[in-house]
Specification:
Layout lengths: L7 H5 L3 H14 L6 H14 L3 E5 L2 H11 L7 E5 L5 H9 L2 E5 L21 E4 L11 H11 L2 E5 L7 E2 L2 E2 L6 E5 L13 E5 L2 H11 L3 E3 L2 E2 L10 H10 L3 H19 L13 E2 L5 E4 L3 H10 L29 H6 L3 E4 L7 H15 L1
Parallel strand pairs: 2-3, 2-4, 4-5, 5-8
Antiparallel strand pairs: 1-9, 6-7, 6-12, 8-9, 10-11, 13-14
Bound molecules: pyridoxal-5'-phosphate.
Length: 366
C-alpha cells in the first residue's frame, strides 16, 4: 500500500464542476478581488463559526497580523503565546513590532498550559494568543477569565481548527477575534493561499477590513497604515464550493481518530488526548513515542507518509534568536517535539488504510 500524508485528489471529484464553472465566471467578469464570492464566503464561513463578522484575507499569517494591528498592538507590546506551533503564530506578532512571550504546553494535550499564563503578564502585555493546535481548542474559560481580569485581548489562532468546538461553541467565537488559514491541506483549504478572520466585535471588524486593504474603506482614501491582505475571488469560489462538506469531513476525521485510538490500544505509542470539553476536528492526528525517528523511517519503508508538527520549537528557531530564549526554557515543549509523529489523516482515508498504518506500527514494535 502507498498512503500519502494527505490526498486532495480524492476530495476533488464532488465539486470539480462547480469550481471550474465558478472560476470561469470570475474570469469572464474579471472582478478578481473582494467581489461577490469573497462577500458571500465572509457571510457563509462566519455563519458556520457562529460569528457576527467574517473578513476574508490572503492567508492565516496575515489574518493574525491584521487582527493584532487592528488592536493597535505594536512596538513595545508583548503578546503571550506558545512555542509549540507553526512559526507563523509568533511571526505574526513579530511582524507587528510586538514581542512574543512563550508559555509552555500541557504535556497531555500539547496545547497552551493556561496555568502558566498569569505569571508572564507584565505592564507591556496587550494580548494572549492561544493556538488551537491539531484541531483541538485550548481550555478557553480560565484563559478568558485571566484576560478579563488583566484587561487583555484574546486572539485565537484557529488556523488548524475550522469547526472545532469548546463547550458547544466553535473556534473563532471564543476570543475577541480569530485567525484561520485556508492553506491547501487544512480541513478547509483553498487551491492556493487564503485566510479568514472572525469576530463578534463590530468596531474591530470595521478596522480589520481597513487594515486588510491598505487602511482604506473607500478606494484611494487611506485612513491608516494597513497592508495588502486581500482574499481573491478564485480562492473564494473554491472555498464556497467546499464549505458545505466541512462538517461531514470533520466528522469523518473524528471517526478515523476513534479507529486509530481503538486499534492502537495496547501498543507502546501514546494516542492524542482529548480535553473533555472539546470536540476536536483532527486537522492532525499526532501520536507520541520516544522512538519517533526510527518509527517514521520504518513507516516510510512501508509506503506510509507521516509528518512532524513541528520538529523545532519556535523559541529555538534561528529566526527567533533575538528574543533570547535558550534550550531548557520550555521543557515540556522541548521534550514533546522529539516524540510527536503525525499519522496520515484526511476525511477520505479508509478503514483498511488506517488498519495498514496501525499494523505497520505494531510490526515495528514486535
Ligand atoms: C497554527 C498555525 N498558525 C498559523 C498558520 C499560518 O497560516 P498560513 O500558512 O495560511 O499563513 C498556520 C498554517 O500553516 C498554522 O498551522
Amino acid at each position: 500500500m502507498n498512503i500519502p500524508f494527505v490526498d486532495l485528489r480524492k476530495q476533488y471529484a464532488p465539486f470539480k464542476e462547480e469550481i471550474l464553472s465558478g472560476i470561469g465566471k470570475v474570469l469572464d467578469g474579471m472582478q478578481l478581488f473582494l467581489g461577490e464570492n469573497v462577500q458571500q464566503l465572509e457571510k457563509e464561513f462566519a455563519q458556520f463559526c457562529g460569528a457576527a463578522h467574517g473578513i476574508g484575507v490572503s492567508d492565516g499569517t496575515a489574518a493574525l497580523q491584521i487582527i493584532l494591528r487592528a488592536m493597535d498592538i505594536g512596538p513595545g507590546d508583548e503578546v503571550i503565546t506558545v512555542s509549540h506551533t507553526f512559526i507563523a503564530t509568533a511571526e505574526a506578532i513579530v511582524l507587528t513590532g510586538a514581542k512574543p512571550v512563550f508559555v509552555d504546553i500541557d504535556p497531555a494535550t500539547c496545547l497552551m498550559d493556561v496555568s502558566q499564563v498569569e505569571a508572564k503578564i507584565t505592564p507591556r502585555t496587550k494580548a494572549i494568543l492561544p493556538v488551537h493546535l491539531y484541531g483541538q481548542t485550548v481550555d478557553m474559560d480560565p484563559l478568558l477569565e485571566i484576560a478579563s481580569r488583566h484587561g487583555l485581548r484574546v486572539v485565537e489562532d484557529a488556523c488548524q481548527a475550522h469547526g472545532a468546538e469548546y463547550k458547544g461553541r466553535k473556534a473563532g467565537t471564543l476570543g475577541d477575534a480569530a485567525g484561520f488559514s485556508f492553506y491547501f491541506s487544512k480541513n478547509l483549504g483553498a487551491y492556493g493561499e487564503g485566510g479568514f478572520i472572525s469576530t463578534n466585535d463590530s468596531e474591530l471588524a470595521a478596522k480589520i477590513r481597513k487594515v486588510r486593504d491598505h487602511g482604506s474603506g473607500v478606494r484611494y482614501h487611506h485612513d491608516l497604515i494597513g497592508m495588502n491582505g486581500r482574499l481573491d475571488e478564485i480562492q473564494a469560489v473554491v472555498l464556497r464550493a467546499k464549505l458545505p462538506y466541512l462538517a461531514a469531513w470533520n466528522e469523518k476525521r473524528r471517526e478515523h481518530a476513534r479507529l486509530y485510538n481503538d486499534l492502537l490500544k495496547g501498543t507502546s505509542v501514546v494516542v492524542p488526548a482529548e480535553h473533555s470539553d472539546n470536540t476536536p476536528v483532527y486537522h492532525l492526528y499526532v501520536i507520541r513515542t520516544p522512538k519517533r525517528d526510527e518509527l517514521q523511517a520504518f513507516l516510510k519503508d512501508q509506503g506510509i507518509f507521516t509528518g512532524i508538527h513541528y520538529p523545532i520549537p519556535v523559541h529555538l528557531q534561528n529566526a527567533m534568536e533575538f528574543l533570547g530564549y535558550k534550550q531548557g526554557d520550555l521543557p515540556v515543549t522541548e521534550r514533546v517535539v522529539t516524540e510527536i509523529l503525525s499519522l496520515p489523516m484526511y476525511a477520505e482515508i479508509d478503514d483498511d488504510e488506517i488498519k495498514y498504518v496501525v499494523d505497520s506500527i505494531k510490526t515495528f514494535y514486535s
